[in-house]
Amino acid sequence: MAEAWPEDLEPTDMTWGVVYNNRAFTSSLSNAQQITSHPGAYWTCTLNFGVLYEEDERELTSLLGRLQGMLGTVNIPSITRIRTDNIGSPVVASAVAQSTKIQLRGMTPGVRVFSRGDHITILGEMFEVVEHVSSDGAGVATIQVNKRVRKAITAGAAVEYRNPYCEMRRADDTNQWSIQPIVSNGSYQFREAF
Asked: Alpha-carbon distance 71 to 34, whole Å?
């Protein structure tokens, strides 16, 4: 089970990104390229802590200790994509493996439910919505997301849209931080766990 991110622990800055699993072939004769896309895209995140006072340093180092390098997982929040509105209680209606479309139900009928750039989490996997979408009269909508669904998602799985997060693991096994009198700092890289 993934560790919860400590509410009081806020990084100075975060770098988010997606690593896609594409391969390119370039012809040696014409320099034409062919690109093929494979499943397995994943989120990456770097958290920088510029100033850590004692209580934050202890919170961070104990979290890193519980993770034990790349072994454990933690739910890292997408803090810039938090929402406070209410679109109902969306759940998955259909999410086929290798598709970039997910059908959701249980939302307020006939309203815009997602905008470009919204993040959602389903069973620890985070997606970014890439097109505006409104629900139909029955509260159903099909959203297009930024990466392929890794494996089929069971109908009825809850969709977290207010406080999206990504279940991640450390990108390496080293735990270290810089300590100066009174304050500490550190930078930590994570990748989506699956």
From this structure: 37
Distance CA 144, CA 29 (A): 37
For residues 165 and 43, is the Cβ–Cβ distance under 8 A? no
CA distances (Å), 54 to each of 10, 67, 154, 174, 175, in order? 14, 20, 43, 21, 17
67-86 per-position pLDDT tens digit: 999 999 999 999 999 999 99
- In 10 A of CB 72, how many CB atoms? 17
Please report the DSSP string for the chain in residue order. Answer: -PEEPPTT---SEEEEEEEEEEEEEE-TTT--EEEEEEEEEEEEEEEEEEEE-HHHHHHHHHHHHHHTTTTS-EEEE-GGG------EEEEEEEB-TT-SEEEEEEEPTTSEEE-TT-EEEETTEEEEB-S-EE--TTS-EEEEBSS--SSPBPTT-B-B-SS-EEEEEESSS----EE-SS-EEEEEEEEE--
Domain ranges for the chain: 3-78+166-192, 83-162
Please give the CATH architecture assigned to the domain spanning 3-78+166-192: Beta Barrel (2.40)
pLDDT digits (tens, 9 = 90+) for 168-183: 999 999 888 777 777 7
